[in-house]
Amino acid sequence: MTAPALPVMCAALGDATRWEILTRLGEEPMSASALARVLPVSRQAIGKHLEVLRAVGLVESEQRGREVVHLAVGARLGVLARELDRIGRSWETRLLRIKELAERPDSGAAGEGTGGRSHD
Amino acid sequence: MTAPALPVMCAALGDATRWEILTRLGEEPMSASALARVLPVSRQAIGKHLEVLRAVGLVESEQRGREVVHLAVGARLGVLARELDRIGRSWETRLLRIKELAERPDSGAAGEGTGGRSHD
DNA sequence: AGTCGATGCAACTCAACGGTTGCACACCCG
DNA sequence: CGGGTGTGCAACCGTTGAGTTGCATCGACT
């Protein structure tokens, strides 16, 4: 699937080291070993992070000679951003509607038992 | 602080249960106990998640009588979304520039020094 | 008043995750 | 050709985090 679930995408972005990697790869494509040289973690750790990032499409890898260079995919981040924005807006809308209902007791307040428990 | 670090925000969103909670709270404000009734986890677990979400500003809580109702803050999600989009675009731009340089070795490859550069 | 339900705090379990080390193998350069 | 470098796989470890249970408390509604 080209569109991983939101929690998975966010989880991939929920690690500082991964952001560090993404930042570097966003500036310039490079190999895992190269990343390990500039970051304070081992090459293997970098490798695991790259696998996670590649799994959600935030990183793409390309075999160049004997090396494998990785690069950050900004488009995927953009997709995530739009999704989050959409959801956020929907929340705002709902809350707005709720507040309006609360302030205008005449608009469809039927079926609301006074002093009784509606649910369970 | 009103703007938690990106990794922290994403980490908060990197959990399926938390998304479940946010979804419900986005539809309708409710208490931890109420959430525990509709979700397959204990009230205490819900409480911990709410604390995490509140810590990054994705949830706000209001004491209503003896209950504490929580609600999802869409605006905060929007802020995150804009941030991610910005970063994603910057990645795309860099890559584009790199590709151009690779294909046009004559286009001002000498001195760089453009002012006002501020990467993360 | 009495009870039921909501909350808060604390201790504990268990799995996932980040990170490391070690090793084997492939490839490029000198 | 040989060493050095880049990579992949696997075992291992410490910590974090999600989730649970238990207990004590406080407030609301009957």
TrEMBL record, chains A, B:
Keyword annotations for this protein?
A: DNA-binding, Transcription, Transcription regulation
Which residue range or ranges hold the HTH arsR-type domain? 1-92
Q: What domain of life does the native source organism fall in?
A: Bacteria
**Is the keyword Transcription in the record?**
yes
Keyword Transcription annotated: yes
Quote one Gene Ontology molecular function term: DNA-binding transcription factor activity
Q: CDD domains from the xrefs?
A: HTH_ARSR (cd00090)
Extract the SMART domains matched here. HTH_ARSR
By its UniProt entry, which InterPro entries does this protein fall under? ArsR-like_HTH, HTH_ArsR_DNA-bd_dom, Metal_resp_trans_reg, WH-like_DNA-bd_sf, WH_DNA-bd_sf
Q: Which residues form a coiled coil?
A: none
The protein in question is named: Transcriptional regulator
Q: Which organism is it from?
A: Streptomyces roseolilacinus
